[in-house]
């Protein structure tokens, strides 16, 4: 074969390979999901809530939008109560839930992503009482006979779970239906301190009740937080794709930036409330609320 023809055939083959490489989309450039992903959430600010226009907002919402954008996925947020959302995840009518703690029971119907943020459980007092309550460890609740407010749903750490019956027996346990009611009851002096999420508790207190809280020293629980993917509607491949997004946005600092942003929003709101509302205003507002509710 003449040398010029041999060289031309090699060049032709190289061009064909290049064309094929260009024409087949790579994993990095092709969307990870072919259909819109249905994401369930309930109102738990600052992690997630529905605004006045019906749009999902919050820390976890912003993080999931960042993961979806990285993967080229379309997402639809659906506001549903927490208990119903788990049932919908089991059936596959929801694809993803955010802000989840991994448990053996939940692993029966869900894939869990790698952790994408952490969660702390703390004890809180009204800001004006922070110098009056000296609590260094969980046992101080019993030695000082401090009345503890606890919302009925949620995980609050091993210390609480292991001593819940003792708290009740010693009349130190006061249950409330939710965080809002806990804050109201604290302002009415129904308890000395309350328990809850380190970011959500002060945020909800400032936004909904005009109350500034101070965290006490003990950290009662520290948990990694995950995405839950329905085993009915999602695949191990999609789980791997979301883990890829979490890893990439951890490395480039995007997750840390979003978490820090919402921490600062919470702190700024508390400072604003502290300047606007003093303890006498809160007492007056609380009495009005009590009269209306009664």
UniProtKB/TrEMBL annotation:
Keywords: Signal
Protein's name according to its UniProt entry: Amino acid ABC transporter substrate-binding protein
Domain Solute-binding protein family 3/N-terminal: 36-266
PANTHER family: ABC TRANSPORTER ARGININE-BINDING PROTEIN 2-RELATED, MEMBRANE-BOUND LYTIC MUREIN TRANSGLYCOSYLASE F
Cleaved signal peptide residues: 1-28
Domain of life: Bacteria
Protein species of origin: Shewanella bicestrii
InterPro entries for this protein: Solute-binding_3/MltF_N
UniProt similarity note: Belongs to the bacterial solute-binding protein 3 family.
Pfam hit, one: SBP_bac_3
């Amino acid at each position: 074969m003449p040398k010029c023809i041999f060289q031309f055939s090699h060049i032709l083959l190289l061009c064909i390979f290049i064309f094929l490489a260009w024409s087949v989309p790579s994993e990095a450039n092709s969307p990870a999901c072919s259909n819109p992903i249905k994401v369930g959430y309930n109102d738990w600010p600052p992690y997630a809530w529905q605004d006045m226009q019906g749009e999902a907002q919050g820390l976890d919402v912003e993080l999931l939008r960042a993961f979806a954008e990285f993967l080229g996925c379309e997402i639809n947020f659906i506001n549903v109560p927490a208990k119903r959302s788990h049932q919908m995840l089991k059936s596959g009518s929801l694809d993803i839930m955010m802000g989840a703690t991994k448990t053996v029971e939940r692993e029966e119907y869900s894939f869990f992503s790698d952790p994408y943020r952490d969660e702390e459980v703390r004890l809180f007092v009204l800001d004006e009482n922070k110098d009056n309550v000296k609590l260094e460890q969980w046992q101080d609740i019993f030695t000082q006979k401090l009345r503890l407010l606890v919302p009925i749903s949620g995980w609050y750490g091993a210390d609480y779970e292991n001593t819940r019956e003792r708290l009740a027996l010693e009349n130190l346990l006061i249950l409330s239906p939710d965080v809002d009611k806990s804050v109201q009851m604290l302002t009415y002096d129904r308890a000395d301190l309350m328990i809850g999420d380190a970011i959500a508790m002060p945020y909800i207190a400032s936004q909904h009740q005009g109350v500034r809280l101070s965290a006490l020293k003990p950290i009662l629980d520290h948990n990694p937080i995950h995405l839950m993917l329905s085993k009915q509607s999602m695949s191990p491949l999609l789980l791997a794709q979301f883990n890829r997004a979490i890893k990439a946005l951890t490395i480039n600092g995007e997750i840390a930036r979003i978490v820090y942003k919402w921490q600062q929003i919470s702190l700024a709101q508390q400072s604003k409330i502290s300047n606007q509302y003093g303890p006498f205003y809160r007492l007056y507002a609380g009495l009005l609320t009590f009269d209306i509710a009664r």
